[in-house]
Design a protein that fits this description.
TIM Barrel; 12 helices; two-stranded antiparallel sheet
């Protein structure tokens, strides 16, 4: 049976540097504060190359690794995973794992399907799922075997010897996916969760209703039982948005402005905001975050939708954390 402690994570806005929402010094100071506080067990960055450009995720994680000693270091959703060559990524990620002394978590996904970015790397939208699957399988081989022979749909390797290997004996790979059942249908959601069960060491979702998360988790459990996979250490994470402000409307307005810059006008939808943005006074923020924990999230990773990253982190620790009932 799965009985995991709640592990809070901090997601830092490496895209925000490009348009003045934050700066590099503030981001790295936040990573250090997260560790020193003893509250946050992990630090995460986002990823995209051409579609939603930002300071490159592995570079930022390397900088954070050099300034911290204990927190795990992860990519929340490596949207570029389908276009990154597994051999290069295997070397880069193993180097990061060595640098951090075995603290990495690689969160992968199929990305947003931005055609200009895909074409720039010789990939197609229809290939994203298969590229992710082959990429994960190949990374496992490259990190565990001395010499790899591989003849796949997208990659072919002959007597490929990759060093360094990760510091961790088993380097964790999580899958981030949050399909809208109303749009894509049951079969697409079920197949996505089956891939999570078959391929991943953890699961990352966006905002989701409790009943929908339960349905997804049931599919992960059923598939895992069928293949004999142990889920006792399998973490479930949400990339949750937070804005703490005594005025609920002020919190909402700042978050909306943040979303407009960070993502695009009109995103996220009001429907998604209802389950994805904890905002307002500490009590309101704690209520939303607690709902994530109560529905089965073991690893809430919080992104503060504010220009004042340090101030939000400090207020979370002082005013919101005492209101939470952590597992």
């Amino acid at each position: 049976m799965r009985r995991l402690p709640t592990r809070l994570g901090l997601s830092l806005p490496n895209r925000g540097v490009l348009f003045g929402l934050t700066d590099i010094d503030a981001i790295l100071a936040a990573a250090v504060l997260a560790e020193k506080s003893g509250v946050f067990e992990s630090v995460w960055f986002g990823d995209s190359l051409l579609h939603k450009p930002r300071l490159e995720s592995i570079v930022m994680l390397s900088a954070a690794a050099a300034r911290t000693e204990k927190v795990r270091l992860g990519v929340m959703c490596m949207a570029s995973f389908p276009v990154r060559h597994p051999v290069l990524l295997a070397i880069q990620w193993a180097s990061l794992d060595q640098l951090s002394k075995g603290r990495t978590v690689l969160g992968v996904c199929i990305g947003g399907g931005h055609d200009p970015e895909l074409r720039a790397f010789g990939a197609r939208r229809s290939e994203r799922v298969d590229r992710m699957v082959e990429g994960i399988e190949l990374l496992r081989k490259l990190w565990s075997e001395d010499e790899v022979e591989h003849a796949g749909r997208f990659y072919a390797l002959e007597k490929c010897r990759v060093v360094p290997k990760p510091a961790q004996k088993f380097c964790p790979i999580w899958i981030a996916v949050s399909p809208d059942r109303k749009i894509v249908g049951d079969a697409v959601v079920d197949n996505a969760m089956k891939r999570v069960a078959m391929l991943a060491d953890g699961y990352i979702t966006m905002g989701v209703e409790p009943d929908e998360f339960r349905r997804r988790w049931e599919t992960i459990e059923e598939t895992s039982r069928a293949v004999g996979k142990d889920l006792s250490r399998f973490e479930t994470s949400i990339h949750g948005m937070v804005n703490i402000n005594d005025g609920r409307r002020a919190a909402y307005d700042e978050a909306k402005d943040y979303f407009r810059h960070y993502y695009s006008p009109g995103y996220p939808s009001e429907e998604l905001i209802k389950v994805w943005l904890a905002h307002g006074p500490p009590e309101a923020c704690a209520e939303m975050i607690q709902s994530w924990i109560d529905m089965g999230i073991t690893t809430p990773v919080l992104r503060f939708t504010s220009r004042d990253q340090i101030g939000q982190i400090e207020r979370f620790i002082a005013d919101v954390l005492p209101l939470l009932q952590l597992q």
